[in-house]
Amino acid sequence: MTTTVFVHGNPMTAAVWEGLLVELGRDDVRLLSPPGFGAPLPGGFDVSPDGYRDWLVGELECLDGPVDLVGHDWGGAHVVRVAMDRPDLLRSWVSDAVGVFHPDYAWHELAVTWQTPGAGERQLAGLADRDAWAARLAGRGMPLAVAERVIDGYDPSMAHAILALYRAAAQPAMARAGRRLERAAARPGLAVLATGDPVVGTLAQRREAAARAGAQVAVLEGVGHWWPARYPVRTAQVLRRFWASLDTVTTTVGAPAVRSRSVRAVPGGSSTARWRSPVRSGRTPWPARVPGSTRTPVAP
């Protein structure tokens, strides 16, 4: 049986998925919170795009069956990295962040602030006013009830993770990672294109990156960055339609995809933390690396 795995981004916890998961009404769902973002940040963890890719690979390797992997924001970027480097772990992938791998992608204003020593620390210090932060998230489209739960997950570990991740991802890091974007076409992909989202690339960049990744495109007209939380009904419809299109595809875990009706296919994975409504913390443990592990290394 296929397992559906959701990975959120920054500055978030798994609470962003709550409304969507209620709409989907499925019991085969796992929520993964990246270390530092609603989950503990272990000492020595590599807070970088490569480090989070490796973390997600390790989680997916723990699953017994094929995975439909869904990511939002930085979670979407981690999903694309896995699709590029370890497609054998997937049946399919969904991401709204494929545009950040376009060679001409430029980081948004707040990201540039976080990437700037001193300025980033000062900006995050201002988040101590949680009511103001919740109001800001709500003003940008996140439902207030979700925003209030998200800010409950903010702590010094998240602040550290935000700064370290964005500084490690300063260009040309993402453009360099995007050189392998065509590899993501090994599995069926869906690029969610929320036309009102200004932070994950221009519309043209996102379409071009999706084409390189061999992904279908789902356009959410007039929808902003927080599409999973603000429009759960529409999002559920998009996901169901995409997953239904995979039913004609035959796959064998660990083997190359078998194409059918020009739709690509997929294999196995590993994860933690089942969805139980309602989402409270979204916390999932980071798996310790086992000496002598037989996990397949990912490409650098």
TrEMBL record:
GO terms, molecular function: catalytic activity
Pfam family, one: Abhydrolase_6
InterPro entries: AB_hydrolase_1, AB_hydrolase_fold, Carboxylesterase_BioH
Database matches in SUPFAM superfamilies: alpha/beta-Hydrolases
Residue ranges occupied by any AB hydrolase-1 domain in the UniProt entry: 5-237
Segments of this protein annotated with the region Disordered: 263-300
Domain of life of the organism encoding this protein: Bacteria
PANTHER family assigned to the protein according to its UniProt record, in alphabetical order: HYDROLASE ALPHA/BETA FOLD FAMILY, PEROXISOMAL MEMBRANE PROTEIN LPX1
Protein name, as recorded: Pimeloyl-ACP methyl ester carboxylesterase
